[in-house]
Design brief:
29% helix, DUF4143 domain-containing protein, single chain, 2 helices, 106 residues
Length: 106
Amino acid sequence: MLFESLAVRDLRVYSQPLGGRVSYYRDYDKLEVDAIVELHDGRWGAFEIKLGTATNVIDTAATNLKKMAALVDDDRCAFLAVLTNGGMATRRPDGVDVVPLRMLAP
């Protein structure tokens, strides 16, 4: 929980100068996404925050993000990303980015 809280705090700090806000997503089917960053112009991106870089952890998080994005019928989604505590930044074949927390910057 500490890593997730730190990551959400960083997302808030970095999105505020852009007029963005950070929220959490959970629906009636218990589908959850840790952080949604929405900009004032309607563009948004979604983050699953994971402590660990194991392939199965990243795969599950990416699947979760893709499920949520499929529920939203618009073209304003800028990115889907799994935010991790380490490793290398990559883009998966399914289009989901894997980003270590240290890569976030204003």
